[in-house]
Design brief:
The chain is α+β, with helices and mostly antiparallel strands. The protein contains eight helices and seven strands; from the N terminus they run E-E-E-H-E-H-H-H-H-H-H-E-E-E-H. It folds into two domains: 2-60 and 134-191, no CATH class; 62-130. Residues 184-204 are annotated as: Disordered.
């Protein structure tokens, strides 16, 4: 059995061949027999479990400013529901959803539908960003924590794509990742400067 962990994601994947489960509690990693049993009974395709684990973390991190929801309603010419967003007390979607459900008589079904649609879109966009961006990935055989391997990779639609060879430590992996994103930012700046120079030359 192998363990896989992603940068900034809560929980780890336990993988055996083509099946996986997600484990949030570190202590669960100590009971190998229980993990084997869980994999046999509840194991699902690795890519599905990986994507679900990432999605759960993304959902927990999302915050929605009531003004964003109001803007969404206004863009759909629904000023009545846009006005109701002023009553939302929190920026955490879970709390907002509970408030709307508890005060459904005030907010109404159409508000709930609009809210859930907006929330779903926010999750999809955040998940897509996470999956497309490179992250540090940690892998090791269960029970051999001292032999961890680090990679830089991404997970579009839950599919593991490694962008580096094995890196010896997390620090080196994070440093390589920072260099990559620093290089990308410099390239974008250079490209922008070049375009601006060309525009300036064309206008003269």
């Amino acid at each position: 059995m192998k363990v896989e962990a992603w940068q900034n994601v809560n929980g780890k994947l336990i993988i055996d061949d083509d099946k996986a489960i997600a484990v949030k509690d570190e202590k669960a990693l100590l009971n190998h027999e229980e993990l084997k049993k869980m994999l046999k009974e509840k194991g699902k395709p690795v890519n599905d479990v990986r994507q679900a684990l990432i999605k759960n973390t993304v959902k927990q991190q999302i915050k929605i400013d009531p003004l964003e929801i109001s803007k969404s309603f206004n863009e759909n010419n629904d000023s009545v529901n846009a006005e109701k967003t002023k009553k939302l007390i929190n920026s955490k979607p879970v709390h907002q959803y509970k408030q709307v459900k508890n005060e459904l008589q005030f907010f109404g079904e159409s508000f709930l539908e609009g809210f859930l649609g907006f929330y779903g879109l926010k999750i999809d966009n955040a998940l897509s960003r996470y999956e497309q961006n490179l992250k540090v990935v940690e892998k090791y055989d269960l029970g051999k924590e001292n032999e961890k391997q680090y990679f830089i990779g991404r997970a579009p639609e839950g599919k593991l794509e490694l962008a580096s060879k094995v890196l010896p430590t997390r620090e080196i992996a994070e440093s390589e990742l920072a260099k990559f994103y620093g290089q990308t930012a410099k390239q974008e700046e250079t490209q922008t400067a070049k375009i601006q120079r060309e525009r300036k030359d064309n206008n003269e």
